[in-house]
């Protein structure tokens, strides 16, 4: 760490006085993997902070479609965007420069892609590499930094955390997660009120499918819909708990018996006792092919078949991670702070690090910015603690509530125009290429 | 109309002066059919207006679970709720007293249920019947009024319009619809931004299933996500337009070619050329039974099979009609106004009517409260005008935009507590029964 600090030169001026002058370097920023409601808030934090330090940072160039933009030298000149447009990123969901699901080849097997990245960064005088993503991109970030140092073209690589899956280590939470959690908690409460109204003569069980292929963080957020003031019967199906058909049906039957209805929040990653995804079971199309995705209809069908109860089901899919209109204010602030800290870390000479959210207190919730070495972040997946799931496996514990509740605090409404959120679409002007073409 | 006005008696006081005294009658209010984000705002309008006129209206009794509450004499004394709780109904989605999908038996075949309603109303001194629902409940409302008059127990029956389907005649729009429309327009815009970000390497087509079994009003609202400032490639599948697989695939392919991605908004009621629901085609469970519901996965599968494009799909289901957190301010105000007008109509002596929303101007949007005789409302379904659908059948016209845009104007955020909307759950205290049991 702290190796590739800003280069300072002492040069002579015409007046023969000596002055310390900073050699400005450009910055590269890219978005990686699935986007979120607040990843652009991190972009906003990076760009606004870099603009404020125009004395040491030159242009901020963004990768068009993430790291692919760097590999193919498809760079965007963010300097062509107005301050207002950059400020609007803070309230705009999705990835403004395009993101990519692209895993670089193993550096030991084929270092060509990594070498190309450094070649592009050299050609565009990139001194700072800000990579906004999850565990995979932290690994890429680390390797770029290591290779650049090895070949004598030092580059400060800072990873900006982002993932709705909340599975990055060290950081207390991941920007993007708090807003999904809020959306799922709000939606679960609203739909449960609806079902409660209808349950006398109509729907008695509502099934909501949420994201989370490996960990039940998002499903757990559904549990927040019920609290002491607003009691709602909720059954959560976590990927961490093997689905047991009989126990599940008994739980649903018991809740419907007591409350007249119940809501099931099921993680897309829910698995049966044999370890296969519930979503992959059962549904076939007209040609007998397995129908991909959709665990909600599978669970709803189990309820119908097992209990004969009337049901409705919903699959939130992209709606949940794009729902900037109901983003968590805490999450927006943290996403922005991570982008800002990334630039500040770079200017402080840090390298191969990721800013983190450090929770210093839960009651009241207090957090501050920390730093984690990328070597401890890359390829490490944080799972949900076992004591966050209630004993029967269908709910969340008080420890889980204490962890989740601060993350959904506050609303940060976007401006509206003609009844719709006024989200920004950037001009995304291309930077002139300087290198030969590179085939992916 | 104007028959059963408030009864005024001249009585003698102890001081032998004559005074005009009003005999107070109680009011009955019930919610019917699928609930909405704003039906409680109508309830709030009814109850607050009735409370303000405590000189002429006694108790407001609500039906527990809609009309079933009246039939079984399960009445709720809304007088036991605080002013604050009643005010909170304005920002609480769902049906606070419970709703019901219950169709009364044909009055000519079996008048028992209608007679029972009047018996219950008589037992509880009900002079005003406020019924909050769609076309079916308007018909019930009308028949109750006719029968009560016939047997000499006059009752003022006022229907309060409500339906997300927007299919009631005469009124320019239906409370409940504007908020669903806003939710679908906002969600379509947000998810489209997400897909746009991901389309280079991942999802290229996003399919969103929305409500609307018979008419494409809600699907049409998805079209609002795209406008002059924010161009989004959207394909709408209306129930009004027979699904043509080849034309659909050509349209999607062309948009993906131009924009790199596209969003499909499909109405649950979309039908094939043979008139069968697309949702009923194809999907079977593990036992070979047809899987009910879910046109989104069917359409997504058609895209995969026909074009080989990566897709995601979402089914909004109850989330869309319960989403009070993003309700249209216009819709909330109109829902409240309809409840308020219902009481004012009753006090003005009107009978067998429904307050309506009259649009007097589109640019700027101006509306006022009108009145429609129930005989012209009951069992009449308003379909979407043909000139609201674009020539190719996949989009909306300017006329449709002009109609829809005012309905989603304004936000009316509920208060939040601990990161979640602070929705009210009423005490719903039962009124003591006075009649023998009635079997449904």
Give the SSE layout.
The structure is a homodimer of 440-residue chains.
Chain A (H helix, E strand, L loop, with lengths): L7 E5 L5 E5 L2 E7 L7 H14 L4 E7 L3 H5 L3 E3 L5 H6 L23 H12 L2 E8 L1 H16 L5 E6 L15 H22 L6 E6 L6 H6 L11 E4 L7 H15 L2 E6 L27 H13 L3 E5 L2 H5 L6 H19 L5 E9 L4 E8 L24 H7 L11 E2 L2 E2 L19
Parallel strand pairs in A: 3-4, 3-6, 6-7, 8-10, 8-11, 9-10
Antiparallel strand pairs in A: 1-2, 4-5, 12-13, 14-15
Helix pairs in contact in A: 1-11, 4-5, 8-9
Helix and strand sequence of chain A:
EEEHEHEHHEHEHEHEHEHEHHEEHEE
- Assembly classification: homodimer
| Radius of gyration of chain A using CA atoms only | 24 Å
How many helical elements of chain A?
Answer: 12
> Low-confidence parts of chain A, pLDDT < 50 over ≥5 residues?
1-17
Mean pLDDT of chain A: 93
Strand order of the largest sheet of chain A: 5-4-3-6-7
**Alpha-beta content class of chain A:** alpha/beta
Largest sheet of chain A: 5 strands, mixed
Task: For the structure shown, list the relevant keywords.
19% strand; disordered N terminus; 440 residues; alpha/beta; five-stranded mixed sheet; homodimer; four-stranded parallel sheet
Provide a descriptive summary of the structure in words:
The structure is a homodimer of 440-residue chains. By secondary structure, the first copy, chain A, is an alpha/beta fold. Chain A contains twelve helices and 15 strands. A five-stranded mixed β-sheet of chain A has the order 5-4-3-6-7, with helices on both faces. In chain A, strands 9-10-8-11 form a four-stranded parallel β-sheet, with helices on both faces. In chain A, strands 1-2 form a two-stranded antiparallel ribbon. In chain A, strand 1 and strand 2 form a beta hairpin. In chain A, helix 8 crosses helix 9. The longest helix of chain A has 22 residues. Chain A is elongated and about 75 Å long. The N terminus of chain A is likely disordered. Chains A and B meet through helix 6, helix 9, strand 11, helix 10 and strand 14 of A and helix 6, helix 9, strand 11, helix 10 and strand 14 of B.
């Amino acid at each position: 760490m702290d190796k590739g600090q800003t280069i300072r030169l002492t040069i002579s001026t015409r007046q023969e006085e000596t002055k310390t002058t900073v050699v400005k370097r450009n910055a590269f920023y890219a978005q990686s993997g699935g986007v979120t409601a607040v990843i652009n808030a991190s972009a906003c934090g990076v760009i606004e902070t870099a603009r404020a330090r125009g004395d040491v940072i030159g242009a901020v160039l963004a990768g068009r479609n993430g790291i692919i933009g760097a590999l193919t030298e498809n760079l965007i000149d963010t300097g062509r965007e107005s301050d207002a447009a950059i400020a609007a990123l803070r309230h705009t969901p999705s990835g403004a420069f395009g993101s990519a699901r692209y895993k670089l080849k193993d550096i030991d097997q084929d270092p060509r892609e990594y070498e190309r990245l450094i070649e592009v960064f050299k050609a565009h005088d990139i001194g700072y590499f800000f990579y906004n993503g999850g565990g995979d991109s932290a690994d890429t970030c680390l390797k770029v930094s290591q290779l650049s140092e090895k070949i004598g073209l030092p580059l400060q690589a800072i990873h900006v955390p982002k993932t709705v899956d909340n599975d990055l280590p060290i950081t207390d939470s991941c920007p993007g997660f708090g807003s999904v959690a809020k959306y799922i908690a709000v939606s679960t409460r609203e739909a449960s009120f609806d079902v409660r109204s209808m349950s006398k003569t109509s729907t008695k069980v509502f099934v909501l499918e949420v994201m989370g292929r490996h960990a039940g963080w998002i499903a757990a957020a559904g549990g927040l819909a019920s609290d002491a003031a607003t009691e709602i019967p909720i059954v959560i199906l976590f990927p961490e708990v093997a689905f047991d058909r009989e126990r599940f049906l008994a739980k649903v039957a018991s809740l419907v018996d007591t409350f007249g209805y119940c809501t099931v929040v099921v993680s897309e990653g829910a698995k049966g006792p044999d370890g296969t995804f519930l979503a992959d079971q059962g549904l076939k199309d007209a040609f007998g092919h397995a129908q991909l995705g959709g665990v909600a209809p599978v669970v709803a069908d189990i309820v119908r078949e097992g209990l004969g109860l009337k049901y409705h089901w919903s699959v939130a899919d992209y709606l949940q991670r794009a729902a900037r209109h109901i983003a968590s204010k805490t999450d927006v602030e943290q996403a922005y702070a991570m982008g800002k800290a990334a630039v500040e870390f770079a200017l402080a000479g840090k390298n191969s690090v990721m800013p983190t959210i450090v929770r210093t207190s839960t009651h009241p919730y207090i957090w501050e910015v920390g730093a984690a070495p990328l070597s401890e972040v890359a390829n490490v997946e944080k799972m949900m603690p076992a004591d966050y799931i209630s004993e029967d496996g269908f709910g969340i514990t008080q420890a889980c509530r204490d962890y989740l509740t601060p993350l959904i605090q506050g609303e940060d409404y976007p401006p509206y125009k003609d009844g719709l959120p006024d989200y920004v679409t950037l001009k995304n002007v291309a930077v002139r290429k300087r290198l030969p073409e590179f085939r992916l």
